[in-house]
User: Fold this.
Amino acid sequence: MIKIEHLKKEYPNVTPLKDVSVEIHDGDVISVIGPSGTGKSTLLRCINQMEKPTSGHVWVDGVDITDKKCNINKVRQKMGMVFQSFNLFGHLTVIENIMLSPMDLLGKSKQEAYDEGMRLLRMVGLAEKALNYPDELSGGQKQRIAIARTLAMDPDVILLDEPTSALDPTMVGEVQAVIRELAKTGKTMMIVTHEMNFARAISNRVFYMDEGGIYEDGTPEQIFEHPQRENTRRFIQKLKVLELNIESRDYDFLGMAGQIDAYCNKSQIPPKLANRIQLAFEETMQLLLPRLDSPRIQAVCEYSEAEESAEWTIRYGGPRLDATADGDDLALAVLGGMTQAMDYAWQESEEMPNQMRLKLSAEANRHLK
Ligand SMILES: Nc1ncnc2c1ncn2[C@@H]1O[C@H](COP(=O)(O)OP(=O)(O)OP(=O)(O)O)[C@@H](O)[C@H]1O
Ligand SMILES: [Mg+2]
Assistant:
């Protein structure tokens, strides 16, 4: 079992891991997903101590491997790592690549290392390439060799950092098939991947990384179908998000219109929907601003490319005020004509307890009452 306690990794300009605590159980197959730069690779590298954490501890089967006295080479033998870029030795044949570490580090005889190496090559479907050099193989084959080489050390844990992202799309499947088989053997695995279907199919647990740590930890079903937290949901549904904050009646409405415009362009939102996003915002402000004593409004637009729809969530402070029920009739009529749904909720505990939601699409409108 791996136990991570208050792990922190700081670089001069960023702190990808702020305070990570988690337990990884024997046999867990964990997919690590999340936006670029959120510390997925850093987490893997801190687990096998390729990277020295700034603070915190990593315990492996009760041994603190972050302790200076710990023999890190021994630990690494138990934790194999597979990289995006294979890292095979070009001057050695395939079978020599695989035999090297078991002979050097585990003291295996040449015959033992060879027999085991051939068994693993058969497992990854490449026994006939034993005497070839890495340069003579395709990317997918090289990565399968790299996996076989990792397995030759008989590690308890295998860490894979985007093992298929450097591959030509036609070769992704063969490497995924090997990893999928491996996942069934009960080995503890952690895989950083951007391929969501694959993550879903092989793992019993998913870490969504964001905001300096493991932002959400759950089963594939939870993370992919019922994410509990906002950033996870946005990532999974590939939502494009814009946030605007208004703190005065005299807000810079032209500047904000420009921001909305830029967001729509950048997210490639179809023009008709983009117009509605713009108009819905303006009308909502018309509705709200005259009725709030000291306006404090947060407006968040989420665009779902998959559904070609957008949703404004407008939160505002002050006493309970359902602006969808009564307000400027004209603004309400315009909003009603262009939204698919519009609702209001009051959430006492929030800093801005009033919440309006407007669903927009480029298609059919809700009928005016
Ligand atoms: N050796 C380093 N020195 C300085 N900064 C680093 C170093 N390694 C990583 N970083 C920074 O730490 C942050 C996290 O990097 P990391 O590679 O762990 O992200 P990631 O989640 O794996 O991203 P990706 O999906 O792009 O691979 C990034 O901002 C990165 O620039
Ligand atoms: Mg990475």
In short: The chain is about 35% helix and 25% strand. The first helix runs from residue 40 to 47.
